[in-house]
Structures
1.
Amino acid sequence: MTASEQAADVVGIASDHAGVELKATLVAMLHDLGMEVLDLGTDGPDSVDYPDFADALAGAMTDGRAGRGILICGTGIGIAMAANRHRNIRAATCHDTTDARLARQHNDANVLALGARTTGLEVAQDCVRVFLDTAFEGDTNPRHVRRVAKIS
Ligand code: RB5
């Protein structure tokens, strides 16, 4: 496997202060699943600005250090908005596994955004598993390829 193929398997993760605890739990879960994780912070309770952490993840995905990502803020909304300003990012705020599945199947989302204050721990963990395990349906449905291409 080449270095860039290995990096494509890396899951980048970042959060603001609202998402620190959920991030730590998800990092541990990803390690338990045998995944390589790039944790971009934040790591403490001090108030930070969520766009800075969206930008950190987008930068890691742009330069190839991570192939896909997870972002967490209080609602998963602001951090997804910031991430989606980057042309190569398709961040989806997901509240349940149906959101996570369809974000992959139809939208080829490459970033899962979660709300630490709005989504329970086990639902968030299930969203991550489904997000990482679900393929884009572009191979079987060219409409999805066309629509995703129009986004960028
Ligand atoms: C931080 O208090 C909160 O505004 C932030 O985590 C997020 O919910 C914004 O979308």
2.
Amino acid sequence: MRYEDFYRQSIDEPERFWGEQARLIHWDTPPERILDQSRPPFRRWFAGGTTNLCYNAVDRHLAERGEQLALVAVSSETGITREISYRVLYREVNRFAAILQSLEVGRGDRVVIYMPNMAEAVYAMLACARIGAIHSVVFGGFASHNLALRIDDAAPKLLICADAGMRGGKVIPYKPLVDAALAEASQPPPHVLIVDRGLDPQMTRVAGRDLDYARLRAEHMNAEVPVAWLESNEPSYLLYTSGTTGKPKGIQRDVGGYAVAMALSIRTVFDIAPGQVMFSTSDVGWAVGHSYNVYGPLIGGATSLLYEGLPTRPDPGVWWRLCEQYGVRTMFSSPTGIRVLKKQDPGWLKKYDLSMLKWLFLAGEPLDEPTAEWITQGLGVPVIDNYWQTETGWPAITLMPGLDLKPVKFGSPGLPAPGYRMKVIDEATGREAKAGEKGVLVFEPPLPPGCLSTVWRDDERYVASYFSHFKELLYSSLDWAIRDADGYTTILGRTDDVINVAGHRLGTREIEESVASHPAVAEAAVVGVKDELKGQVPVVFATLKQDAGDGAAAVAQAMQLRVVEQLGGVAKPSRVYVVNALPKTRSGKLLRRSLQALAEQRDPGDLSTLDDPGALDEVRRALERGPDQGS
Ligand code: ATP
Ligand code: MG
């Protein structure tokens, strides 16, 4: 089917469209109503229908593909690979669900999961889904304070953790972080279930509170736990946003709408049919990890490859070797991941047989043109930029190669996914921007299935955070965008990051792209810094592919020139700092707000999601030293 017709139908006849898509999943009771919009901006998809995520991801495939691989969990850290068929997955999830029940975890109870990319994290998620418990996976890289905040918001009945994770060959004990978080939390759960890989011989246990997964599993080897049939709009899981711009929000997902969005997108966006192999390099702690390491591929009867480790260890060919070995068809990663590889020998991209690989999807941050081009040429497959948010749960702007591939345009993730009533509007007037005009990206309600149903226990925050920015009831993405005449949308940066130079509004992305087009530049971050004369001026922080030594000033000047040539004098960076590292969140997003604060001699704010504290010191030193180029 043509993309245009598919999309049009989803907008013009949503009930008919989604009513048809609902058949992609199993319902215990079919929906009474496809869409209930009686209380906007809230909406209820497939109201009255009952279903279950675990049933759709596991049980439903047993008859036809019980022996097929469901999950391949590869760890380049421990050196262990586990190949898990749908039948084995079914057994393990039932055992895990029985453990949860033995700990009195039931429907509607929250379970916090704090684990790296390992098979048991997937079992735990599916076991929760099976019995109707609400999981909240917290990225294993978060420190104890972040974990404590999320525990207090979710008020879980149980916390499941691993003894430790590993990064670059180094063991990172998790249990001490859990202990510290529970000491800090005001709502600590009564039990901690530990999946012990024996990585941390020093691990201590609190008698009575801490339980051993292996021991409990042995007690439930033959368990069969019936599926809890949930009403489509009951919560399935909570997932906190990355916190790039402030206090993370507990994004609440439903059951039926999410299942349908997964079934639809795995097929039409990611082009994965039952039996095919998907490899997402995301962590299970992120939105991509939930949707395309776990629920999407499994609901679609595919094989999901789960990877624990760095893209460069034991060597920079590790991802591509896995693609060859398992016949990966669709790969999903982030621009940050690809930029890491870009600093390595491109020969690694050519070393393995990638004839099965069809698509590389990248999401999470703007995908700059040089990186897109480098990886497209290196792999010889189309690279599809993908725009989404934790809130949406699946791509909002994408191309749909599983349906009808439209041309890739570098710099733009493409066209709206089904059900997204997307507009770019003028921030001040609310009027729709013309092609080529900048504005705020908004979605008209109802949000499609799969998108958040609310903020956990805070309907007011849901409305205030997302639907209160304009006179009309519109979901604001809080991202700044521009649409071309063909309807392709480009994200220019977050609305907080827009730089206002003497009345001209510039997206950070535009200037960053221009700077990064200089061949010596590895990555650039641009922020608006207060200026008495112009209001704000752009300031550049950039890392180089190779240390330029004394040549840094010349490169910095060349960057400044490039911006003036490409974007004009208004965009001219007033200062350029060459640094060795840029501050990022644990999910690889640039912390522009902290950069801006430092450049304005303010407090950098909440740094609890910062990946590498050294990067911030690096910026402080550069600011003290003075710019490599100033105007
Ligand atoms: P918080 O909302 O807590 O500040 P966050 O917005 O960083 O955190 P996520 O939901 O993980 O948390 O990130 C979504 C954001 O990432 C988008 O709103 C957008 O700014 C950016 N983003 C994602 N994909 C793309 C893309 N393909 N191109 C440009 N930007 C993207
Ligand atoms: Mg956000």
3.
Amino acid sequence: MTTWWQQATVYQIYPRSFNDSNGDGIGDIPGIIQKLDYLKTLGIDIIWLSPVYNSPNDDNGYDIRDYYQIHSDFGTMADFDQLLEEVHRRGMKLVMDLVVNHTSDEHPWFEERPDFYIWRDQPNNWGSIFGGSAWEYDDSRGQYYLHLFSKKQPDLNWENPELRQAIYDMMHWWLQKGVDGFRMDVINFISKHPDLPDGENGDGSPYFMNGPRIHEFLREMHDNVLQHYDCVTVGEMPGTSPEDAQIYTNPDNHEVNMIFTFEHMDLDHAPDDKFNYQPLNLIDLKDNLEKWQHALHNKGWNSLYWNNHDQPRIVSRFGDDQTYRYESATMLATCLHMMQGTPYVYQGEEIGMTNVSFSSIDDYRDIETLNMYDEKRTVGIDEATVLDQIHHVSRDNARTPMQWSDDENAGFTTGTPWLAVNPNYQTINVKHDQNSEQSIYSYYQQLIAMRKQYDIVTNGDFTLLERDHPQLFAYTRNNGHENWTVYCNFSSDTITLTEIPNGEIMIHNYDDGILSNSQLRPYETIVLRNMKEVE
Ligand code: NOJ
């Protein structure tokens, strides 16, 4: 049976960068309300809101000081209630970010409930994901606390049942308010190996990813909270294999509905340094996505994404953001949205927003980027090399303000934006895109509508074609009644296939039909439908 979230398309809002209604340079909740019709018209079913809770913003809201309050940068709880009502009035749903692997060190628990955190007399050798040691000495306690992210993000102690109950109470509170689910931040980190052993070269991940009690904790969360609501959950889970995902997302296991894998996002950089980027080998990407498609078919559920607030922009990463921006943005969208799973669109993806190349480190804001810059410069790597890596990989690529128009600051704010707007906003913006003959937004609209209209997009099986072709990603979807073939040219070359079969064209990013000689032009994509003969 298909559930509502299996047929849905999700849109992620990074509130700080979406739309500023009061001119303080920071996006806010009233600003989001102003744009709900834009999302409804796109065809969006679910909005995922990155954190809007009270936070000192060491990691832009992923460091929560109070789970029950809205950050004043974003507005008030009354604004939030209005947002929820307006989202529901339009027939959409709202999913909150649930950040419960850690809090801010400014959360009152950090003072009042030391038993809610992880303390040791001696640190182990784990490194933090944002650089440096994962341990910080606390003078008043005379002990070290664990922080897998910044030192202002102490990890919570999920071994403590009272902590778990406090989290479940908070989740009930939001669900009773009417929110429709949670995107769970690094949720597969919450169970740590009790001994916290040293890791190889300081890598503690084998001892904190998918740890010994993770399934037990997720089931408990489900029994205690989630089963009481018609809600959707997606767990952000770095370091998770398709086999792990089968356990996490099998409906009989009562854990989460789907997870975000990182495997396909880890193919274009060195294993130990995400900033050390490398060209993508398309064959690796195909192998990987095929593996996930097969592993979860009828066994669990996939989420489908190219972009979020932590990833560089896909059109710059796997496409061509210059000559073939329209073609490659629409090709990438087709490739993703025609697979089985729930697709996620990240703000700006629907107009083909690109990476940014600020010339000075002073223009960057992201803690991960700033820490990495300091570390690499300290060991003597030259400025140009480090900046080049930042231009390709920094999370700020995704976080520059949404480009609404060619007005000053892209129509995002009348004030000074907290992070500079990408200078290309004069040509890449919503207004321009929507008035263009080649509108990426309209193309996304069509893809999203196809998912609603044709059951095969949700339920068909997946077969990879042309496995060894270095430039072509092609696959079929099949549901017993019909068969769809999806062709995606991942290159700026024209490629020649043995044959492109006949079929009804469901979507195509060149408007003059298929070439008669079975060629696919640069970044061309096409979906063909064939009905099965009734026997
Ligand atoms: C994953 C979030 O997506 C990222 O933005 C954040 O920095 C870390 N988790 C820590 O919360």
